Amino acid sequence: MAELKSASIQSTAARAETEAAAQDLSAQIAALRDDLSKLSDSVVAISQGAKTVVTEEAALVTARVRDKVREEPLFALAVTAGVAYVVGLLSRR
Q1: Is pLDDT of 62 > 70?
Q2: CB within 8 A of 69, min separation 6: which ones?
Q3: Which of 4, 27, 63, 69 is the most buried (most CB within 10 A)?
Q4: What is the pTM of this model?
Q5: Does residue 8 have a pLDDT over 80?
Q6: 51 φ, ψ to 5°?
Q7: DSSP code for 78
Q8: CB crowding 13-48: b at 16 or more within 10 Å, else e
Q9: Rounded Cα distance, 38 and 65, in Å
Q10: Measured in whole angstroms, how far is the alpha carbon of residue 31 from the centre of its chain?
Q11: Neighbouring residues of 10: CB distance < 8 A, sequence distance ≥ 6
Q12: Looking at residues 55-66, what average pLDDT do you find?
């Protein structure tokens, strides 16, 4: 009978330990979800910032190219012809 009580006490202790571990695991999962949510928000903010920078740079380069073409149309035509020639050579191979 004493062995039965001892086994029962050990079983109760094991259940309590298991429940505590399960609660700890649940808390860790909740913290991980919170961290992932924050990380996702950070990635979105970074990507939006990068998109803005790239858009501004593209607009600036486009404006510079337009100005250069207006200033030197023959040079622009020669560069375009040169690029077309090189692309034509590469496409033959």
Answers
A1: yes
A2: 76
A3: 69
A4: 0.51
A5: no
A6: -60, -40
A7: H
A8: eeeeeeeeeeeeeeeeeeeeeeeeeeeeeeeeeeee
A9: 41
A10: 20
A11: none
A12: 95
